[in-house]
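Annotators were shown the component list below and the corresponding predicted structure, then asked to write short factual statements about the assembly.
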Amino acid sequence: MSFALDVLTILAVLTGSFFFLAGTVGLLRFPDSLSRLHALTKADNLGLGFVILGLLFQAEGLFAALKLVGIWLFALLAGATVAQLIARTARMSGSTM
Amino acid sequence: MPRSSERPAAMADFLLAAAGFVLATVALGLVRILRGPNDADRMMAAQLLGTGGIAVLLLLARAMGMPAAVDVALILALLAAFVSAAFVKGVDRSEMDGA
Amino acid sequence: MAFDIGLATLVLGVAAWTIAARDTFAAVIGFVAFGLLLALVWVRVAAPDVALAEAALGSGLTGGLLLSASSRLAHTNGSAVIEKPSAIMRLAAALFCTLMSAALAAIVLLLPEPAPTLAPQAAANLAATGLGNPVTAVLMAYRAIDTLLEVVVLLLALAGTWSLAPDHLWGGLPGRGDPVDRGGVLTFDAQLLVPIGILVGIHIFWVGSVAPGGEFQGATILAAMWILAMMTGLVDAPGVSGRWLRLALVVGPAVFLAYPESHAKLVILTIEVPVTLSIAATLALLVAGPPNRALK
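Structure shown to annotators:
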C-alpha cells in the first residue's frame, strides 16, 4: 500500500515538474507579455497542483492534507486574480506587442 | 510494511531532486522575466516565485522532514498575492499621477 | 548539495540584478524576489522561524513599503539617473562591500568546531518558561527587553513617518482613499483573501509557542491583510490621531513594560496578544504612509 502511494507520488511530482518546465519554456519562447502571462499562470499553477497531489499521498494526517489543499486553493485564487490585473496593466500601458 | 514515518531515503532524495528541478525552471523563468521590456513583465516575477517557491518549499518540507516549511509556503502564498496586488496598484498609481 | 549551490547562485544573481536595475520599480521587484529566495535559504539551513519572518516581513511587507516609497519618488526617476555617483565613489563602495563580505566569510569559516552557542542552555531551560519553541522562548523570556525595544523602534519609525505630513494635514488620513470598485477583480480577491489571511495570521501567531511562528510573523500577515483591505478601498485608512488607533499602537509596549517575573505560559500569551496587535497596526500604518488627506 505504501509502495503504491510512493509510486503515485513519484508520478504526480514528475508530472508537476514537467508542467513547471513547460511553463518556463513558454516564458522563454512566447513573443509578448500577455502570452507569457498565460504560460506562467496556467502551466505553473497546474504544475503546483500536481506536486501538491503527489505530496497529498505522503501527507501524515487530515490536518496536514487540508493545509496542502488550502495552499493550492490560495495559489489558484492569487494566480487567477493577479493574471487579470497584470493583463489589464499590460493593456493599459499599450504593450500588447 | 514500513511505518509511514520511516520515509526511505530514496524518496527524500527524489523529492529534493524535484525541488532542485523546479528551482532551476524558476531561475530560468526569472532570467527572462527580469529582462522583460516593461513593468507588466516584471510584475510576473512575484507570481513566478510565488508558485514555484511554494512548490519548492512543500517538496523541501517533505524531503527534509520539516513540517514548518509548509507554514512558510502558506505565508508565501498570502504574501505573493499581497505583493502582486501592491505592484499593480503601484504601477497604476504612478501612471495615473502622470509620472 | 547541488540544490544548495544552485540556490546560492540564484540568490547572488538576483541580488546583482537588483543593484544594477535601472529604475526603482524594477529594483523593488528584484528586492522582493531576493527576499523570497532568501526564505528558501533559511529553510535549507533549518531555521524555519527566520524563513517565516523573511518571507512575511523582509520580503512581503518591506516590499510593500518600498513600493509605496518608489511610487512617491516616481517623478524623480529622471534626475536620479542624471545624478549617478562618480566612478570613484562606486569603486570605493564596491571595495567596501567586498571587504565586508570577505570579513564575514572569514569569521564564519574560522569559527571553532563546534561553534560557540547558547542553544543547549536555551533548550534546557525551556520547561521553566512553559513554551515549546526555543525561538519564542528567546524572544519572549530570555531576551524580552530586546523584543520590547524592537517594538518601540517600530513605533518611533511610525512617528517619523507621520511627521512627514504637512502641518495642515496633521491627524489626517493616509493613503489615497480610492472608492471601492465593487465589481473589480482586485476587490473580489481582497474580499476572499483578507478573512482567510486573518485566520492564517492568528494561527501563525498562536502556534508560535510550540512551533515556528510567533508574534512578528503573525502580526505581519495581519498587517498585510489590513493594507490589502485599505488598498482596495474595502476599508478606509483611519485618521492618525484617532484615540482607539493610538491605544492599539501603544498597548503592546505598555503591557510589556508591566512584565511580571513569573514565566508561566498564560502570562506570556496574555502579553503576546496586545504586542501582536500593536505590531500589526504599526506595520500597516508604516506602509500606509504619512497622512495626505484632511479628516472629514
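Statements collected:
1. Chain C touches chain B through 60 residues (CB under 8 Å).
2. Chain C has a mean pLDDT of 83.
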